[in-house]
Structure prediction request, 662 residues.
Amino acid sequence: MILDDKNTFMNYKIDNLQYCNWSRKIFKINREAGLDAVHVTIVYHEDFDELQKVLNMWNNHFKENSDLIFLGKSYLDIEKAKKDGKTAIFFGFQNCSPVEDDIKLIEKVHEQGCRFMQLTYNNQSLLATGCYEKNDSGVTNFGREAIKEMNRVGIVIDMSHSAEKSTLDAIEISEKPIAITHANPSFWHKAIRNKSEDLLKSLASSGGMLGLSLYPHHLKNGSKCTLDSFCEMTARTAEIIGVKNIGIGSDLCIEHPNSVVEWMRNGTWAKIKKYGEGSKKKSGFPIQPDWFRDARGFKNLQTGLKKIGFKNEEVNDILGNNWYNFYKGIN
Amino acid sequence: MILDDKNTFMNYKIDNLQYCNWSRKIFKINREAGLDAVHVTIVYHEDFDELQKVLNMWNNHFKENSDLIFLGKSYLDIEKAKKDGKTAIFFGFQNCSPVEDDIKLIEKVHEQGCRFMQLTYNNQSLLATGCYEKNDSGVTNFGREAIKEMNRVGIVIDMSHSAEKSTLDAIEISEKPIAITHANPSFWHKAIRNKSEDLLKSLASSGGMLGLSLYPHHLKNGSKCTLDSFCEMTARTAEIIGVKNIGIGSDLCIEHPNSVVEWMRNGTWAKIKKYGEGSKKKSGFPIQPDWFRDARGFKNLQTGLKKIGFKNEEVNDILGNNWYNFYKGIN
Prediction:
């Protein structure tokens, strides 16, 4: 629990990963859900020039929706958001494409608002190995330099889509705690993207955060996953790594046409279509479970987590306070 | 030996790797050396847009030196060069940076003249692992797609600066023979960049070519390497992999300021200087051995190879005919 300047308890609600087809409608939903902060994915495979176009689009979002959102740069903006009844938007990249092969671009993208960057998105990058590669050689020469620079400027290393050795390397090399912003433990559901107990223990013991994902491909029984099952998994995860290292990174990808998930999976690297976590028959975005159609599902999580036996304070930790504390350490 | 249309024997002289500070002076030296073709490195870390600037520079070279050089696109241009008393210039990339993360750029760079592309230059790339990385995960997902596309359009896969598993993967995946355009066997000199016997045997048994390097860091005793020692190594290599799979890729980097070798090694990926094959004390370009200061050293190679016991025909094979035959298979 956190005290504000009047010594009253403040609880923050944070979704630490969304990639929606951004609109006023979605910003309103996030407000309705009471989200003080959202870490939003702004690019996947875009290079630095393409990022600039996305930033322009976000500038428009901020102008047109200034009653609902603003650009978050540090944990102080989460406090400000709470006070003003708005949502602070923190920028993140799901691949390192915008920094290209130039270490100096890391400082540049930080200046432009980037606070989280995955070292890889499924495939091998210049920095590390993605979880869809056959072999994992770990963090590369450039990756080691990039991690140092990200530590220096204050960009969190996000390994949600990375392979295991690369993630363990990143935990070891990084002088600041890293994050897995959106994934679940594989003991619950063996998706390629979900994480082993050993990895989660390393993450937590170094002060890192796991954002539990609500994306159906990461859930036991997919779209039919029950709230009870999700909350049981959360309780078991807390037993293994401690409740303080768990948050939510819903991975909500709502209101997108299916062409977007195709592009996320394929980028421009293959001439034949790849299906990633989907399949030829189920190639589109999966349907969200009915208890988490959008961020308003945080209310159901609150109920479910209490029901499974978490104390009020622990529920508040998981739904936002842990991420708030993690943000305090970024800079 | 090769017959021309009058049934006389034609011998081609080819240096299959140079990266010089290009000028009329160097084009003249290459003519003096009797080179019918040179595979020239035109980029290291440049992306697609930067490549366009380099291509403009080469267009000027071709205009201003049309009596000495022209752009080579297939083996027919080697024959034309011989007939016209000129040197056909074949473009190559030492890294895959110009194709960025876009498989469609492979066809594009082929249209622009590219005939050789390394999958990596020392560090990890999006396609494979370089020889300076700690671990080698082999050819990546994107790498597999890129090799198929390079085979299709007719760009040779060059693994001179790649790590061993990546090279073995490339040999296996590629449907056409690949090349190591500039390196030596490590049994002779244990440079990181030199190649194991096992790798060279795989290369040769798949029809691939090894271009022996004259760059001092790849030579036994560096700049003091003797012609006899180099020719003994050539003879031993021919015993192991056969004389038909051996050519020359001198790796001549002449007339450059030392800032160029610094850039080759560091690109834009590190904030602190890396010395690659050099060292802090010997950070610049090494001095060529006195019997191979420039391409006119081909004459010394001819003498040395005969002295060591190669037949005339074998000497001609090594000094160019083997590469000529390899070029016949590119398209």
